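look at this one:
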Amino acid sequence: MQTNKTLPVVMSIAGSDSSGGAGIQADLNTFAAHHVMGATAVTCVTSQNPSRVDGIMAMTPDLVTRQIQSICEAFPVAAAKTGMLYSADIIRAVAAADISQGIPILVVDPVMVAASGARLLQADAIAALCEELLPQARVITPNLHEAEILIGHSISSVDELRKAAREIGHKFDVACVAKGGNLGGDEVVDVLFDEGEEHVFRSPRIPAAQSHGAGCAFSAALTANLAKGMLIRDATERAKHYVGHALEFALRIGDVRPLNFFHGVAPR
């Protein structure tokens, strides 16, 4: 006799990527690959592909709030992650909803600039992100450029990346995974600083043709793992491993090499 199995519910609060490779589409694929139930609160609709962003239309802050409330009313949300939030008003709405709905775990991917170079966070929204949302997070996952913005100076080595993870963790009183993919070299180094402890994760650099959506997939995998009860160190290591495989076994669709979100996932 088959019985129903309850899956953790995980919410993505992020923008929609029309090409399906990043944003809420990448988050939902990653959630499915990790066998958790995914829900979304859409902050923006974009017109984009892996090479460029052609247009952005933001949702109203009230609509973003209503989406979060509707999901939390229907489901016991175990964790949520944020991606592209775009404006200060949306950030404030998400921060208020996170508190009012009592979401247990919040992962913030401080999305500021797309891999194509397009700005995904308005300049005046950075202060709102730092003051109102980051201190509420369990963990934040900045890439190299985002970490530089958060600490206000450049990062050019692994030692500086380690110091940045510590500085960001202390500054916002959160765990921080500072991602060093853009440092170059034969390996990729990511640094987790959490409650006074540092963990350094190293992996061989994968010569991927494209990395569109890799940051989204990493934060979504981390969120899914935390929702399933993993310790943050293990959740980070698993997320890094997952993204590495998604890049290594990327799909080949015309001239595009999208992430393989389901490589090695056993069918159910």
Q: What stands out?
A: The radius of gyration is 17 Å.
